[in-house]
Specification:
mainly alpha; two-stranded antiparallel sheet; two-stranded parallel sheet; 4 strands; about 50% helix
Length: about 190
């Protein structure tokens, strides 16, 4: 039963109360039905909502995109072992070939085309740092492709908060997300 589920909602007892809710970066439709009502009620009752990052801010999105790029005009081919690069290229060619078959009729009905979707996810992949390419490749599965166009839980809640005229903000800056991942060395990636 939904009422018996762990909500991952922490309450800070003050007047008015404050809440801390842990989200995950998956399409909200995968988890929304499993979020207990006490978490949804806390969201609705709150006048201000703060997120990890402000995913509704174009500067946040462009900052995330630029932090993923290799420095000094380098290419992935320059930093990966040759055979690994070839395997990656073959895999991405396979994904591009399969993408039209993985897309849903609903996605097509909304004007989403396979080439556009591939470029939105994997465009400029040869210029990205290995850690970001790894994360990108992990999201290029049939299941993930079928849920493209559905906002992740964080973005869905941010959009809902804006629609409900709540005060919104972020607790982290793009650099605080980027630098730790970009600081991983090649063997860690």
């Amino acid at each position: 039963q939904q009422g018996e589920l762990n909500s991952f909602l922490w309450t800070i007892r003050r007047d008015p109360p404050a809440y801390l809710f842990g989200t995950i970066h998956v399409p909200y439709t995968r988890v929304w039905d499993f979020i207990p009502n006490n978490s949804k009620a806390a969201f609705h009752a709150s006048s201000s909502v703060y997120f990890e990052l402000d995913l509704t801010d174009p500067y946040t999105i462009s900052g995330l995109a630029s932090c993923q790029m290799l420095p000094h005009g380098e290419n992935l081919q320059d930093v990966l072992p040759r055979e690994l690069y070839r395997r990656l290229k073959r895999h991405l060619d396979y994904i591009k070939l399969m993408l039209p078959h993985w897309m849903t009729p609903d996605q097509r009905g909304k004007g989403l085309y396979a080439d556009y979707l591939f470029n939105a996810i994997a465009g400029n992949w040869e210029r990205k740092r290995p850690v970001w390419v790894m994360l990108m490749v992990n999201s290029l599965t049939e299941t993930d492709i079928r849920s493209r166009g559905v906002p992740v839980l964080d973005l869905y809640l941010a959009q809902e908060a804006e629609r409900m005229k709540k005060t919104t903000g972020a607790v982290e800056r793009v650099e605080e997300q980027c630098h730790p991942l970009n600081g991983l060395n090649f063997s860690q990636v």
